[in-house]
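User: Please fill in residues for this 643-position structure.
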C-alpha cells in the first residue's frame, strides 16, 4: 500500500499486429505489477501473473495512460512501440492512483542527462540482458518538478505523457482540472495524509480483520472510511451507510438498498426469500468487504437480520457469511430512527446490544485526534457534551455565544432545527420574503423516474429555487485549497449566464456550474443527477446535518428529543467564534445510558498496566487475544471520564 511502484489487480494484456488483430493475450484475475528501471534508465512495467512468466513492457514518452475510470479501479496503458495495450481492473482506486502518479512522476523527471537511449531492438540484438532495479521512492524534488511540468503544460498544447493527446487545458474553470493534475488532486501521497490512529485502522482493515472504529465528531471517521474504500478492490467491496446523505458522502449506497430485505420489519423467512432474488443475491455473494458508516443509526434488530441473511444467502456459517465487516460511527451521536405505533413498546436497540455484533469479534478502535475543530477549549466542551455533561464551564461558554455576531458580508448563520418541518418552513418563508425574481434550477436525472430515489440518496434537491440574496450551502468539494468545500456557506450575489454567482464567507466567488452525483444501485447499475451544487441554508434539520462540517451555525436546542441531538448540532461548528447557541439549558444535553456503559466497558478493557504496554511481546499477545485495537492500547489517558 505504501509503495506506489507496486500494484495488485486484474489484468488483460493484448499484443496487436500492425493490422490491429490480437496476436497474443494474457489475462489474469490477480497479477502483480511493478515499475522498474533498466540499467539504461528506461522505465518498465513488469507484470507477474499466475501461471505465466514475468512480462516487461517499456513505458516511454509515447505511452498513453487512460485514467478516466481510475476511481472505479480501472485504467488502460498503451505501449505504441510494442503495439500492446494493458487493461487494468478491480484495482484498489487509491493504489491505482498512487501507481499511475508514480509512473507519471518518474517519467516526467525523465532519464538523467547524458544517458544514452537504447531501443529494445538494439538491446535484443546485442544479446546483452538488461538489469532492472526497483525504482526509488518519489522525492519531494521529483514531485515538485513533475507538478511544475504539468502546470507548464496546462498553458500550452503540448502532449501530456499521460494522455498522449494534444489539447488545450482549461485552467480558469474551477471544475475542470487538467488530466495530469487529477493524479495530484487532494493528496500528494495518500497514506501520508492519515494520522497515526487512522493508519492503524487502515492496516487492520487491509489485514482482513472485522473492525469497528469510533471517535468523537470530527475525528475523521468518514474521511478515513473513504481512504479504506479506496484501498480495497472495488468489485468485491460494498460501501454503505445508514442514511442516504451519509452514503453519498462516502460514494456508496444505503445499507437498506444493498441488503434488499425491505425496512427490516418482515419475518426472517421472508427476508431470506427476498435476499435470494436477483440482483440482491449476486450482491451478497460477490461481496467480500462490507462497509457501514453511521452505524449508530442502524437499528440493532435490522443488523441482526442482515447478519443472518448474509449467512443464509452465502451458505456460510461464519459471522456475516464470511464477509469482512468494517463498521464506523459514534454511538453518542444520533440513534436509530424507528417509528412506533401509539401504545407500541419501544424495542429499539443499538447494534452493539446484539448477538450479531458480538459474534463478529470486532477489533475496536477509538480515534482521538479531532480534525474538524482546532481550538482545545471548544474540543473539551464538546467532549463533555458528548457524554451528557453540561457543567458550569460548558454553560458559561455556550451561553456567552448567544449574543455574538457571526454574520459576515451578507452571509447569515444557518439555523439548526430539531424538527425537519421547521427547517423547511424557515427556508421557504425566507426565500419568499426576498424581493426579486426567482430562478428555478431543475436537476437532470439521467434515468427517467429516478427523481424520488435521488432526492433520498443525494443531498442535492431535484428543484432548486434561488433569488439574489438567498442563503446557500455548497454541496461538493469544488476547490479544496480555495475553501470551496462541501458545507461552505455563501449567498447568491447575481445570476450570470443563467447560473448563480455565489459569494462565500471567505470572500471567494464561484459561478456554480452543474455538477454530477452518481449513486450505485443494488443491481450494479447507477443513477446520476446533474444539478448546481447548492441547497438553501437559512436552516437545516439536525438529522440532515449529521456528518457535515458547517461554516457558521446558530441553534436553539429547546425542542431536542433524542440523546446526542444537541451534541450533533454543536459539533458541526468548527469553532466557538462561528457558533451561536440561544437559550442554552443543561437539560438539553444528555447521553443514552446504554451508550455510556458500552463506552465505559470499552474503556475498562483498554486500561492495562503501563509496563505491559511497553512490553512488545505482551502487547502483541494482548492484541491477538482482545478486541482492542493498537491505537487504543497505546494511549496513556482514559478515553472518557464517565462518572
Ligand atoms: N488526517 C486528516 N488530516 C487532515 N484533515 C482531516 C484528517 N482526517 C479528517 N480530516 C478533516 O476533518 C474534518 C472532519 O472529518 P470527518 O467528517 O471525516 O469526521 P467524522 O469523524 O466522520 O465526523 P462526524 O462524526 O461528525 O461524522 C473533515 O473536514 C476532514 O477532511
Ligand atoms: Mg462522519
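Assistant: Residues filled in for all 643 positions:
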Amino acid at each position: 500500500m505504501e509503495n506506489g511502484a507496486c500494484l495488485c489487480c486484474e489484468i488483460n494484456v493484448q499484443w496487436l499486429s500492425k493490422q490491429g488483430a490480437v496476436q497474443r493475450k494474457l489475462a489474469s484475475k490477480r497479477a502483480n505489477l511493478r515499475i522498474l528501471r533498466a540499467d539504461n534508465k528506461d522505465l518498465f512495467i513488469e507484470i507477474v501473473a499466475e501461471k505465466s512468466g514475468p512480462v516487461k513492457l517499456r513505458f516511454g514518452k509515447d505511452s498513453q495512460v487512460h485514467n478516466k475510470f481510475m476511481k472505479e479501479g480501472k485504467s488502460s496503458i498503451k505501449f505504441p512501440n510494442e503495439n500492446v495495450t494493458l487493461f487494468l481492473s478491480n484495482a484498489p482506486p487509491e493504489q491505482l492512483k498512487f501507481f499511475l502518479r508514480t509512473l507519471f512522476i518518474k517519467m516526467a523527471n525523465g532519464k538523467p542527462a547524458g544517458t544514452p537511449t537504447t531501443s529494445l531492438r538494439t538491446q535484443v540484438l546485442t544479446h546483452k540482458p538488461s538489469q532492472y532495479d526497483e525504482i526509488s521512492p518519489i522525492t519531494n524534488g521529483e514531485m515538485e518538478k513533475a507538478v511544475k511540468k504539468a502546470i507548464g503544460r496546462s498553458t500550452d498544447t503540448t502532449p501530456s505523457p499521460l494522455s498522449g493527446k494534444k489539447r488545450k487545458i482549461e485552467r480558469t474553470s474551477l471544475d475542470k482540472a487538467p488530466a495530469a493534475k487529477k493524479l495530484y488532486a487532494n493528496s500528494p501521497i495518500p497514506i501520508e495524509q492519515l494520522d497515526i490512529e487512522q493508519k492503524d485502522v487502515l492496516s487492520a482493515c487491509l489485514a482482513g480483520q472485522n473492525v469497528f472504529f469510533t471517535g468523537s465528531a470530527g475525528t475523521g471517521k468518514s474521511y478515513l472510511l473513504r481512504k479504506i474504500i479506496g484501498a480495497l478492490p472495488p468489485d468485491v467491496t460494498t460501501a454503505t451507510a445508514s442514511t442516504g446523505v451519509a452514503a453519498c458522502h462516502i460514494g456508496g449506497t444505503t445499507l437498506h438498498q444493498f441488503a434488499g430485505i425491505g425496512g427490516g420489519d418482515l419475518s426472517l423467512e421472508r427476508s431470506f426469500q427476498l435476499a435470494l432474488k436477483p440482483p440482491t443475491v449476486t450482491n451478497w455473494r460477490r461481496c467480500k468487504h462490507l462497509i457501514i458508516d453511521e452505524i449508530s443509526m442502524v437499528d440493532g434488530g435490522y443488523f441482526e437480520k442482515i447478519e443472518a441473511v448474509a449467512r443464509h444467502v452465502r451458505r456460510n456459517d461464519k459471522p456475516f457469511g464470511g464477509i469482512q465487516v468494517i463498521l464506523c460511527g459514534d454511538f453518542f451521536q444520533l440513534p436509530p430512527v424507528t417509528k412506533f405505533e401509539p401504545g407500541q413498546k419501544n424495542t429499539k436497540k443499538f447494534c452493539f446490544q446484539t448477538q450479531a455484533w458480538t459474534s463478529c469479534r470486532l477489533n475496536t478502535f477509538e480515534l482521538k485526534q479531532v480534525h474538524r475543530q482546532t481550538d482545545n477549549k471548544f474540543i473539551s466542551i464538546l467532549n463533555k457534551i458528548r457524554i451528557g455533561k453540561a457543567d458550569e464551564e460548558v454553560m458559561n461558554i455556550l451561553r456567552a455565544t448567544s449574543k455574538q455576531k457571526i454574520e459576515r458580508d451578507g452571509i447569515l448563520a444557518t439555523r439548526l432545527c430539531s424538527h425537519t418541518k421547521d427547517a423547511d418552513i424557515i427556508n421557504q418563508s425566507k426565500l419568499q420574503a426576498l424581493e426579486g425574481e426567482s430562478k428555478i434550477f431543475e436537476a437532470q436525472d439521467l434515468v427517467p423516474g429516478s427523481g424520488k430515489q435521488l432526492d433520498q440518496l443525494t443531498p442535492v434537491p431535484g428543484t432548486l429555487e434561488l433569488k439574489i440574496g438567498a442563503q446557500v450551502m455548497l454541496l461538493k468539494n469544488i476547490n479544496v485549497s480555495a475553501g470551496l468545500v462541501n458545507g461552505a456557506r455563501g449567498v447568491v450575489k447575481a445570476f450570470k449566464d443563467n447560473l448563480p454567482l455565489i459569494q462565500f464567507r471567505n470572500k471567494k466567488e464561484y459561478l456554480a456550474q452543474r455538477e454530477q452525483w452518481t449513486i450505485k444501485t443494488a443491481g450494479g447499475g447507477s443513477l446520476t443527477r446533474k444539478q448546481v451544487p447548492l441547497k438553501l441554508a437559512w436552516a437545516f434539520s439536525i438529522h440532515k446535518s449529521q456528518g457535515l462540517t458547517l461554516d457558521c451555525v446558530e441553534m436553539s436546542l429547546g425542542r431536542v428529543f433524542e440523546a446526542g441531538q444537541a451534541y450533533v448540532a454543536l459539533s458541526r461548528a468548527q469553532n466557538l467564534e462561528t457558533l451561536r447557541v440561544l437559550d442554552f439549558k443543561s437539560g438539553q444535553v444528555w447521553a443514552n445510558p446504554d451508550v455510556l456503559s458500552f463506552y465505559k466497558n470499552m474503556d475498562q478493557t483498554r486500561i492495562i498496566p503501563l509496563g505491559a504496554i511497553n512490553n512488545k511481546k505482551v502487547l502483541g499477545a494482548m492484541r491477538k487475544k482482545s478486541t482492542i485495537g493498537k491505537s487504543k492500547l497505546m494511549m496513556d489517558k482514559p478515553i472518557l471520564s464517565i462518572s
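For context: Confidence is low (pLDDT under 50) at residues 154-181, 185-192, 606-643.
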